[in-house]
Amino acid sequence: MLTDDEGIEELKVKFLMVKAVPESQQIIELPCSRLSLTLIGRRSAEYAGTRYLKRGANFKGQVANDVETEQIVWDTRSSPDFKHGKFSAFVQRRGSVPLIWSQDPATRGVVGKPVISIDINEPHAQTAAAHFRELKQKYGSPLIVMNLVKRREKRRHEALLHDQFLKAVKYLNMFLPRAERIAYLSFDVARCHKSGNVLSKLEEIGFRSVIRHGWFQSFPMLYCHRVRPNLLLNDYEPMCSMDGRFLLQHGISRTNCVDCLDRTNVAQFGIGKVALGIQLYSMGFAGEPVLSPASEVCRMYEDLVDQHGDTLALQYAGSQLVHSIKTYKKTSIIQACLSERSRDVIQTLSRYYSNTFGDYDKQNAINLFLGLYRPNSAGPHLWDLGTDHYLHFPINFKTKADYCAWFIDFDNLDDWEYVIGEDVHFSQSAGVVFA
């Protein structure tokens, strides 16, 4: 069956559908209503794999550990079905740094981290361009990139990714109008954690992001909020559907660290917590668009995000989160070490064992299940392949993207014209012309 094209496509669809099933759900009981809070994770099947065997992105800009996270608030008493109920949703995205880079587990020895190496230096950032082009087509603008890798280290390690990623974003922004440029934010979580104010900083960043993106809501803004807007939402400019019935989210926040697991999870919690407070306020269930950290709803949401992160970490790294959200909530570093140290050691050992002894077989199973490897009597067996590199990086791959008009998808657009101010003019026939 795996050699049949239709069977392969059917398996891919089933795989994607399985990953779209809600991971976690909580019921919030209110005096006036009953809310359902759901967190959904949709993992991409395009460049799927395990931790050290799938890093960065492929030539199409599809990144490793690529997950779309959506939080949905549903007023269950508004309607007995899903078609006419009152909903609110907010979407985030996580994924590896969109460059051609890797980490060879053989370089770490018994302890330590494998060396990060940039396999292909791209002066025109074609891989990053392909990735952000897909994000722009799917979500629109603005795109907010939160890079959580370390910038200052005694021995240069993660900073290499930061420098290369920043260079790529700066190049791509040269060809975009100011209003549509990629917003790049570097936030060193590990360094900020030493001062004990990670979550407060993330809340500030979250407010700016949510105000710029907005959120989806299945009904218009409440009249009382239009007449007397909250001061915290003064800069919010709602985007509505054509008929004015819905509020829409435009653009997305994309978060990454090296693994896109522990630090990324706490960053998405910070942004999602802000979004949840605004969602409850916009739906009329809260008096202020701020969710108190001591509230029961915040505790429920924290549990959902931790479960969400544990599930993603088990799939990608072979263990649960090494650093949960509770680690970053401690005001004292000593207190955090005492309470979380035993858990961290166990998860670190579990992750090390899985990466060393189980990831290769797991990667082969993923390649077979997704149809990247197709059994052939004339070809080598799956277990005889020395590497799966050429399954994900075809030798004959060619891109049609323009170095300057990188945001245009030539494969899906027959006739286009794009003007940036008075200085730069793009067209399908002329490419880029500077006035």
Automatic annotation (TrEMBL):
Transmembrane segments: none annotated. GO terms for cellular component: endomembrane system. InterPro entries: Fig4-like, SAC_dom. It comes from the Eukaryota. It holds the Pfam family Syja_N. The keyword rRNA-binding does not apply. PROSITE patterns: SAC. The keyword Hydrolase applies. Coiled coil: none annotated. It is found in: Endomembrane system. This is SAC domain-containing protein. It comes from Gongylonema pulchrum. The lineage of its organism: Eukaryota, Metazoa, Ecdysozoa, Nematoda, Chromadorea.
